[in-house]
Design brief:
five-stranded parallel beta sheet; elongated
């Protein structure tokens, strides 16, 4: 039976792709570059690494590839062209070589059970001990299962073939004699987990002192490779403990866990992933004292790698369809079909010619431009002519605003045609907003709209692929016109905007703020002179307030700005903003510039690149939340 799907782009979360073979088919090895770069900068192994991003950036996929089943599959099929690049990158990371799998990846997810411990009416000390006990038991059980998977054994039946010879000098392990077999360790961890489950399910008073609680997460160093053996040999050269969805822990549990793993000094590799939604301290959002990877930031700084990843993902998903469509990018038109828009282009050009004639009538130095645009290429009904006319209008407006002395020397058509290419981009935006000529189309723009988030790419690509399928099933050319692509894109944008009402904890304030911000950025982008060509898509917060009551108080500290901080934190956590550090001003002053997520730019007819930005005072931003 085929495991293929009609529209594989609709399959989002990696945990829903159950088969290892299917996961690898849809996996982009480009994702591994984030760890390769980390390994170049500092030792990746024997340290604690936090992997953070908004939902859908690829955290779980990045962790899952290190599980034994997938590493073994890549190793055993290293000659397969489909796995060649993945094998090469995993080899660079030192988790496999040409002979065997070198690393044991142990992945656990933070489920609701942990947070339920906080609801029990017991002391914080007992809660912490139960939390560590449950975490230790699950890490041990997960490790034993992955060992059997790596060695081709049956779990748990073959655990007697595994030995655990940890010397428990600190007496961490109660009710079990060490060294022991894997079976003994399994029974001990299973019984401990059951005891804690009984506590969670009990309606009666429980004697918590009788339950084996733990003060430390000792599993991460007691389970070092030299302590776990099969046939007398250690099972792997390194163990990677991967804790996924840490944002689902309670605030106390998360704080305790993070403090423990960052302060412990024993050699062990612990990778913790979480959504940005749980980062509490906004003031230290961009500055960390420990090893951290922000996936969106990595992709933002490595655009070519991100585009390559999207190409790999789109090709593998398209070829996985049951409908015989084996490509994606080639079915996306990346140009305006002039004949299809002849009527709209003609109307837009005629309207722009009237505007050009009017604005140029006050100064004869633009006469050659007008003659060229109106007469010399007057028969051309093309997007390029329409863009060029808009460029001329913008340049004339800029000339009007000059303060310096002007001798009004005539300007040649060559001076119009050369340079200022960003104004051509502005011309495209003008035609899109006022004349409905498509702008948001083509794979390159789709990549930009994804804002460095793979799931965001899939949310748009799945609907676009649906359009390709519809054409194919109807017996038409599967390719989508620029207009059709933009129509689908704007439909998905509208759906995403509506979904914010459900997703965001303070959706009313956030949406009001973004709408006021988007309207402001739009007004700046479509000004007569397009001073910030190709447009403004971001802002920086001018730290000094003009309000006397809170004069010179940082907006990140004053209680007066609590509503603004709350909205900003939500926007960052849910990937509605992208933060870039920009140096501008006196003595290399550094600004945190907050750019709109690209899908929001579509709502306000803004450009998709990280364009210009304005400094805005915090009290003005505060007004945008309230009105």
């Amino acid at each position: 039976m085929s495991n293929k799907l009609r529209n594989p782009f609709k399959m989002r979360a990696s945990e829903k792709i159950e088969s290892d073979v299917n996961f690898l088919r849809l996996f982009s090895p480009e994702v591994l570059n984030v760890l390769i770069e980390q390994q170049k900068e500092q030792d990746l192994w024997g340290n604690v690494l936090f992997i953070r991003s908004s939902a859908g950036a690829g955290k779980t996929s990045l962790l899952r590839i290190f599980e034994p089943g997938l590493l073994s599959l890549v190793h055993n099929h290293k000659g397969n062209t489909d796995y060649k690049e993945t094998h090469s990158k995993l080899k660079m990371l030192g988790v496999i070589d040409n002979k065997k799998v070198l690393a044991l990846g142990v992945l656990i997810k933070c489920t609701r059970n942990y947070e339920l411990l906080e609801e029990i009416d017991i002391s914080p000390h007992h809660k912490k001990r139960l939390f560590y006990a449950l975490l230790n038991s699950r890490l041990i059980l997960a490790t034993l299962k992955r060992v059997t998977e790596l060695k081709g054994l049956n779990f748990p039946d073959d655990l007697d073939q595994i030995t655990f010879d940890y010397k428990d000098i600190h007496n961490y392990f109660k009710k079990i004699n060490l060294p022991c077999t894997g079976r003994d360790l399994f029974n001990w961890a299973s019984n401990l987990e059951v005891e804690i489950y009984e506590v969670l399910d009990s309606f009666l008073t429980v004697d918590y002192d009788s339950i084996e609680g733990h003060d430390e997460l000792f599993s991460i160093y007691s389970l070092n490779p030299e302590h776990i053996k099969f046939n007398g040999e250690q099972v792997a050269e390194k163990v990677i403990f991967m804790i996924d969805d840490a944002h689902k822990l309670s605030k106390n549990q998360r704080k305790s866990l993070f403090e423990y793993v960052t302060e412990q000094r024993q050699y062990c590799s612990v990778w913790i992933s979480e959504r940005l939604v749980k980062i509490e301290d906004f003031s230290s959002f961009l500055n960390r004292d420990y090893n951290e990877i922000n996936l969106e930031s990595f992709w933002s700084n490595n655009t070519a790698k991100f585009n390559k990843a999207l190409l790999q993902i789109s090709l593998s998903r398209a070829s996985y369809s049951t409908e015989g469509i084996t490509s994606f990018r080639e079915y996306l038109s990346d140009f305006i079909e002039a004949n299809a828009y002849k009527s709209k282009l003609s109307a837009a050009i005629n309207k722009s010619i009237i505007e050009l004639t009017k604005v140029s009538s006050f100064n004869p130095k633009f006469s050659e431009w007008v003659d060229y645009l109106v007469n010399e290429i007057g028969e051309e009904i093309t997007p390029e002519r329409a863009y060029l006319i808009r460029k001329a209008i913008l340049l004339i407006h800029r000339d009007e605003n000059k303060n310096q002395l002007d001798f009004n020397f005539s300007l040649s058509k060559e001076q119009l045609l050369e340079g200022n290419n960003e104004l051509i981009s502005v011309g495209k935006l003008f035609l899109n907003r006022y004349d409905k000529i498509p702008y948001y189309y083509g794979f390159s723009n789709l990549s930009k709209i994804s804002s460095n988030n793979i799931e965001q790419f899939l949310s748009f690509a799945s609907e676009i692929f649906e359009g390709i399928l519809s054409n194919s099933i109807a017996g038409k050319n599967p390719s989508l016109t620029a207009e059709r692509q933009e129509k689908i894109t704007k439909k998905v944008v509208a759906q995403k905007w509506d979904e914010l009402d459900i997703l965001l904890p303070n959706s009313l304030e956030v949406k009001r703020f973004i709408n006021n911000l988007g309207t402001f950025l739009q007004s700046k982008t479509f000004s007569d002179t397009a001073s910030y060509a190709p447009g403004i898509t971001g802002f920086a917060i001018h730290q000094k307030s003009t309000l006397q009551l809170i004069k010179d108080v940082d907006w990140e500290e004053s209680e007066f700005y609590d509503p603004l901080r709350k909205v900003m934190k939500t926007c960052l956590a849910y990937n509605l903003f992208e933060v870039q550090k920009v140096i501008q001003g006196k003595k290399g002053q550094q600004w945190d510039v907050y750019y709109l997520n690209r899908w929001i730019c579509v709502m306000y007819n803004l450009p998709l690149q990280l364009g210009g930005w304005n400094k805005i005072k915090p009290n003005e931003l505060l007004k945008w939340i309230k009105k």
